Amino acid sequence: MPTLPRALAATGLAGALFLTGCASAPEADNSNSESDYCARMVTNSGGLEDRSFNQSSWAGLEQAQEDLGIEAEVLVSTSANDLQPNVDQAVESGCQFVLTVGFELADSTAAAAEANPDTHFAIVDEIVEADNVKPIVFDTAQASFLAGYLAAGVSQTGVVATFGGGNQPPVTLFMDGFVDGVAKYNETHGTQVRALGWDKAAQDGLFTGDFENVNLGRTTTQSLIDQGADVILPVAGQVGEGAAAAALEAGNVSIIWVDNDGYETLDESFRPILLTSVIKNTTDAIIEIVGDDVDGDFTNEPFVGTLENEGVGLAPYHDLESRVSPELQAELDQLEQDIIAGTLVIESPSAP
C-alpha cells in the first residue's frame, strides 16, 4: 500500500432540511459543547451528493455534531438562484456558525459577514477577507504534483492528461501541480511523457465550462483518450463521473479523482479504473474549526491544508496497487518528504 498521507472523507449523508430557526442542540457528554450552539452549511450549486467538497464538508459538520453535541443542518443549492437566499436563510436561523462551500458563494458570504459581524463564517476553497470569516483552502498542487509524477510513471502510452470544469484557482491549482509532476518525472528519468489539457505558462487549457454535465465529461475524456492519454485527472466535480465512464469503456485508461477518495464515493463499477485520488481533508478541517469556535477560539486566519499537516494527500491505490512498482513508490515517498521539508517547492499562481 502507498505510504503517502491518506485523508479519507466520510461519505454518510443526512437528510437536508431548510430551516428558518435554530433548535436547541441535543445534550452531549463533551464538556466543551454549548447546548445552544448550532451551525448551518450552504452548498454550492452542485448540490450535496457531489462526490466532492460539498459532500466532504457536510461530513465534517455531521461529525462535529456527533463529537461536540452541536446542532447542524444543511441548505442545499441546486442552481445559482439558490445561493443568496440560502445564505440569508442560514444567517436568519440565528446560528453562531455558517459554513459556505466554493467560489460561487464568495460574494454572498462576504456580504452576509459584513451585515452580521457577530456571526462566524467559514468558506471552503475560497478566500474571503473579513474579521468574522475563516477561509478553508488547500495547497492541492503539492499532492497533485505527486499524482502527476505517478501518472507519468505508470503510463503505458507516454501520454497523460487533465481537464477542468472552469478556469478558476481552486481548479487550476490541481492542474499546475499535475503537469509539474509529469515534468519532474521526465527530468528524473529522461523520458518525454506528454501532459495534455493544461499549459501552465499560459494558465490556460481544456475546460468543460461547468461542474455538473456528466456527458461533457465523457466526450472531453474520449477526445483525450483518442489522443493517446491513458491516465487522466478530471478536476470538474460531477463532470468527472463522465470521465470515469469513458475510461471504463476504453478499458485501458485510469482516472485520478479529486477532493475525496473516489474509490469510496463513486459507484463501485468505477473501482477498476481508479488509480488514486488527490484528497482535500475538508472533513477534519471543519471538525477542528467548529471545535475552536465552540471553545471561543475562532480566528479569521486561513486554514491551509498541506502535505505536512495532512490537509492534502494521495488516496491508496486500491485495486491498481500492482501498477505502482516499489521503486516508483520510493521516489514518490522521497518527493513527499522533500516537499514537506521545503527542499522542493511546488509553485503555482493559484497557491493559497
Describe this structure in words.
This protein has 2 domains: 38-138 and 282-305, Rossmann fold, CATH 3.40.50.2300; 141-280 and 312-341, Response regulator (Rossmann fold). 37% of the residues lie in helices and 18% in strands. The chain contains 10 helices and 14 strands. The chain has helices at residues 53-68, 83-92, 106-115, 140-154, 169-189, 214-226, 239-250, 262-265, 282-294, 326-341; strands spanning 38-42, 71-75, 97-101, 120-124, 133-138, 159-164, 194-196, 198-199, 204-205, 231-235, 254-259, 274-280, 303-305, 312-314. The strands form 3 sheets. It has a 6-stranded parallel sheet, with helices on both faces. Strands 7-6-10-11-12-14 form a 6-stranded mixed sheet, sandwiched between helices. It has a two-stranded antiparallel sheet with strand order 8-9. The longest helix has 21 residues, at 169-189. The two termini are 30 Å apart. The model is unreliable at 1-34 (pLDDT under 50).
Rg to the nearest angstrom? 20 Å
Name of the level-1 CATH class of the largest domain = Alpha Beta
Order of helices and strands: EHEHEHEEHEHEEEHEHEHEHEEH
Write down the overall geometry.
globular
Number of E-type strands:
14
Mean pLDDT: 90
Query: What is the assigned CATH homologous superfamily of the largest domain?
Result: Response regulator
Q: Uncertain segments of ≥5 residues (pLDDT<50)?
A: 1-34
**Spatial arrangement of strands, main beta sheet:** 2-1-3-4-5-13
Strand percentage: 15-25%
Q: Which architecture of the largest domain per CATH?
A: 3-Layer(aba) Sandwich
Helix-strand makeup class:
alpha/beta
Distance between the amino and carboxyl termini:
30 Å
State the helix count: 10
Number of domains: 2
Main beta sheet: 6 strands, parallel
Helix-residue proportion: 25-40%
CATH topology of the largest domain: Rossmann fold
